[in-house]
Amino acid sequence: MPTYSFLSLLREGFTGHKGWTPAWRFPDPKPAYDAVIIGGGGHGLATAYYLAKLHGMRNIAVIEKGWIGGGNAGRNTTIIRSNYLEDASAAIYEHALKLWEGLGRELNYNIMMSHRGVMNLAHDEGEARVLKRRTEANRLNGIDTEWLDAKQVKEFCPPINISAGSRFPVLGATLQRRGGVNRHDAVVWGYARAADVMGVDIIQNCEVTGIKVEAGVVTGISTSRGDIRTPKVASVAAGHTSIIANMVGVRLPIQSHPLQAWVSEPVKPLIPCVVMSNAVHAYVSQSDKGELVMGAGIDPHNSYTQRGGLDTIEHSLAALIELFPMFSRLRLLRQWGGIVDTCPDASPIITKTKVKGFYINAGWGTGGWKATPGSGHAFADLVARDEPNAIAAPFSVERFSSGALVAEHGAAAVAH
Ligand SMILES: Cc1cc2nc3c(=O)[nH]c(=O)nc-3n(C[C@H](O)[C@H](O)[C@H](O)COP(=O)(O)OP(=O)(O)OC[C@H]3O[C@@H](n4cnc5c(N)ncnc54)[C@H](O)[C@@H]3O)c2cc1C
Q: Does the global pTM surpass 0.70?
């Protein structure tokens, strides 16, 4: 991996930046690999990194139909927390949060991790009871959630409107201080560079168009750049998972929906933390550039268009202006959408399938970014050993027939 001294940085600055080398290779696909990962988002690249690093699987490829990080990885608002209700969820999200805490150092890449705290607001007594219960459940799982009353909420986030006459009165909030945000591109690039150094081929502009199966066993894939032989195919295609699974006749209880976000013009530091409100379907944080990063719940319709409707944004903006009246004077800079893969119990699927050698990691819906390292770590273990570890096991697709759901609609929150 190249390193640059201060002098070489200076020289590049004065000579037109001609000496930079790419951070990862752009290889052509080989005829065969030991495993192929479909999807070059955060989860796919993390899976490749842990497969190479922890399981010694280096003759592997990540196949991405666009560019790495061009899907939800590059579109999400990067809220990270682990304060989910169920033990199984707490285990995987907390596993991820612990990995996030050391990831910049591990990848030798500045992922701009900021543990600025995430607050989830309660606007009525019922919501307050539910959030307090979750606080207790989190503490039993060793997760750092605390309950703040309205005055403490205001102290932690001074611009918030807690007046009793407000349309959305703030009764209190949960706070996870270790929660926060990071930089999505940097995470994708950090994982890509580290996987590439270990020999993983990252193949962009290459769409998987088919999966070859003989006698119930995976033998390879077809792509827009030719066929590849492989005994293991690991799908990490987020909003497009149902299309991939359909290639081998696997049906999943996943629906794909648009999820939108938007940013304001940049302003001076204003919001010191992440604020989320499940009931009003809105959340906000501030980027290092000064933009207010805001988001909503999913658009209700199914779609693959990576765009949503203005009514969803309008609803969330109206709520945010109630909570932060000063936002009414801001102009919006841009808006975008991604396609998220939602499950009926608001929990992910990490699973083997009825087709030997075909594995799925999906269903993270509106909240998978926070899980990226933990998801990649657990999925790599499943793909390498053909058995789920204790963290992945509760998320098998079998739960939809056994009834052992991991119901997280409350903690999965507005969007995340
Ligand atoms: C607007 C928005 C805000 C969000 N905010 C948050 C948040 O604050 N916190 C949080 O935890 N989560 C958030 N999420 C959810 C989070 O982004 C996703 O759960 C997570 O990124 C999904 O994993 P991924 O990064 O691997 O997905 P992706 O980046 O979508 O990766 C999947 C990849 O598969 C590729 N692919 C699909 N089909 C094929 C094919 N046939 N061949 C080859 N490649 C293919 C796609 O091009 C894509 O690059 C948000 C999502 C959106 C859209």
A: yes
